[in-house]
Amino acid sequence: xxxxxxxxxxxxxxxxxxxxxxxxxxxxxxxxxxxxxxxxxxxxxxxxxxxxxxxxxxxxxxxxxxxxxxxxxxxxxxxxxxxxxxxxxxxxxxxxxxxxxxxxxxxxxxxxxxxxxxxxxxxxxxxxxxxxxxxxxxxxxxxxxxxxxxxxxxxxxxxxxxxxxxxxxxxxxxxxxxxxxxxxxxxxxxxxxxxxxxxxxxxxxxxxxxxxxxxxxxxxxxxxxxxxxxxxxxxxxxxxxxxxxxxxxxxxxxxxxxxxxxxxxxxxxxxxxxxxx
Length: 277
Known about the structure:
Layout: H1 2-34, H2 38-41, H3 56-62, H4 68-100, H5 106-115, H6 125-134, H7 141-145, H8 152-162, H9 167-175, H10 180-191, H11 193-208, H12 212-217, H13 226-231, H14 233-237, H15 241-274
């Protein structure tokens, strides 16, 4: 019995180790390539440590013409951050309405919102671009942010979580004099912090790495986001695999920081939502 148990534990740890290597291996190779010269990146056998590397790739990135990398970075912060804030606001309010309020055609509207998830995103690119062009939002932050703020996944996630909030808590708040908005802000929002953090991580990561929509709606080099800018680096300076890896590594750092910060809020929100009195 002990042998079987030890064998099972060993197999489990081997599987976990293999999964970690599969997930972290590409990230580590990106880190190694960011410090190596372009000519040495594709050398065989591949090196797992940048012992021949330096910071020349990063210097190349920050010295590109007119500080364009900084503009790309700033654009990504504005687009991903602004979109995430609006998505959280709309999704939480819509989720509260669908979960705890009564209004005509509620079930039909909720079904229609969820049904939009079955529509491929590429099928809406042309209609969205025509609308953006009609409202003169091409090459503007509004054109990058607004078409992506309607999140059916966010509404569904918030609705399902809010349905588990006891109605007695909301009724007690109304008895104490809280209106609808007071109940939402003072009672509901603190409870749903864990889910809001999850949605924020998911949406911020998705928008930070988005390439297709910026590629369609942006034509000015100064309005490019990081994914679009990094994809254009080869066209700007020729074969620059090393600087591209350095720029990709720099673009990965904010996502990691955002995840770590949101993870702390996630744990704090779980503790707050679990306290009942």
